[in-house]
Amino acid sequence: MIAEKYSAKWVIWSSVLINVVFTILTPLAANISYIAVLVVRFIEGLGAGMSPPAIHVMLTKWVLPQERNLMSSLAYAGMALGTVLSLPFSGILAAVSGWESVFYVQGGLALVWCGLWLFFIYDSPENHPRIHPEELELFRACSREHVVDQGNDTMVCEAKLENGNVDSKSLSANLDDKDQSQHKSGSYSNLPVPWRALATSGPFWAIFIAHTCANFGWYMLLVELPTYMKAILRFNISQNAGLSAIPYLCLWIFSIIWSNRLDWAKSKGWITTTTVRKLSTAIASLIPAACFVGVSLVGCDRQAAVALMTVGTMFVAGTYCGFLTNHVDIAPNYAGTLMALTNTAATIPGFIVPAFVGHLTHGNQTLGQWKIVFYTTAAVYLVEFIVYTVLGSGEEQPWNTVFQRKSKTVKSKTEGVQEREEVEK
């Protein structure tokens, strides 16, 4: 909500700065006690949790609808690219300068990023002092603003850019002076959240459940599958930094290709936003589910297990064009709030997964117990697919603008009364 009401730029910057400070303090905390390390990591987690909702707010303001899949994938898949670069880089640093240098160097690099962010980034195109006037007009023309036209809400513009023939000035002229000033000031971001409508919204619950289920599978891939490979297959993947980075490199590459092709197909009119979201979520749930089943069936075949883990991780990239971007579609005015809600719920599997696996396998590291783990994870992915396919939508929901319409109606009535009073005088 802070990002929506005030500044997504400063929320993201604060989030990263918190992680910078406490990353640099990690070696000091390690020399004090493990409790100090836990405290530092806890604070870093709080800081990191601020970023996703704020990123969603930035996407609503800086990304045109026709480029939403690609730009969202670039933003979120950057985390995977960071993993690809940091794993081998950290190994080299630790070998050359000691493990402490990993925290100092990476914290320092992030600090440089904080400086660049402050200089180059602005909350919206209207706030950017160096933006080209034609680009600004294009953003205004293609923003999902509404105007009152004889009592009916009409969409001003969701311009199609594939032909490059958008007359942005004529389109933006459809916004009256009050709408443009409201757009510039961001007053729509101060609208109250329609909690009752939100609580009964099927598309919102589709995102909520899909996000939670997907994170259950993601934590299993990220944390527990390597544990299985070490305990059952006697293969310590963490000792090979290059091999550890391969699944994330595949994820990053696939996310760029997949999002680009989806934007292309959508620009041709072959698929709708709803189709994009459901198709992407389907591949991000069904294929990893099949890979978990496959890992349980290949037994002690190390090569097959690594291949399946890589494929499963790669197709998780579908979430970037699936439910993870869906908040912006159904309620651009509240995208940050929605992301905060679903992301909070999606962190719960981070506690459940280790406890669940530990309960089944502690003192009983057998293939049979791990099969239960993998089949359960596949079932969770299946729940994600079913719920999202049934309830998901890529269309803007009516409650996104309910308070916006009420605000305009009240203003129109007030202005009408004032005009009549002036005429009577």
Structure summarized in a few sentences:
With 425 residues, the protein is mainly alpha-helical.
Features of this protein?
425 residues; mainly alpha; two-stranded antiparallel ribbon; 2 strands; 2% strand
**Share of helical residues:** over 70%
User: Which secondary-structure class do the elements indicate?
Assistant: mainly alpha
Radius of gyration: 24 Å
Q: What letter string, H or E per element, gives the SSE order?
A: HHHHHHHHEEHHHHHHHHHHHH
Characterize the overall form.
Answer: globular
Catalogue the unreliable spans.
144-166, 168-188
How many helices does DSSP assign? 20
Average pLDDT for all residues: 81
N/C terminus separation: 44 Å
Spatial sequence of strands, sheet with the most strands: 1-2
Number-wise, the strands total: 2
Strand percentage lies at under 5%
Largest β-sheet summary? 2 strands, antiparallel
Q: What does it look like?
A:
The chain has 20 helices and two strands. The chain has 425 residues and is an all-alpha fold. It is globular.
Ordered list of secondary-structure elements with their pairings:
Elements: H1 2-5, H2 8-24, H3 26-32, H4 34-48, H5 51-62, H6 68-97, H7 99-120, H8 133-142, E1 146-149, E2 152-155, H9 168-172, H10 177-185, H11 195-199, H12 202-231, H13 241-267, H14 273-297, H15 302-315, H16 323-330, H17 335-346, H18 349-361, H19 367-391, H20 402-424
Antiparallel strand pairs: 1-2
Helix pairs in contact: 2-4, 2-5, 2-7, 3-4, 5-17, 6-7, 6-13, 12-15, 12-16, 12-17, 12-18, 12-19, 13-15, 14-15, 14-16, 14-19, 16-17, 18-19
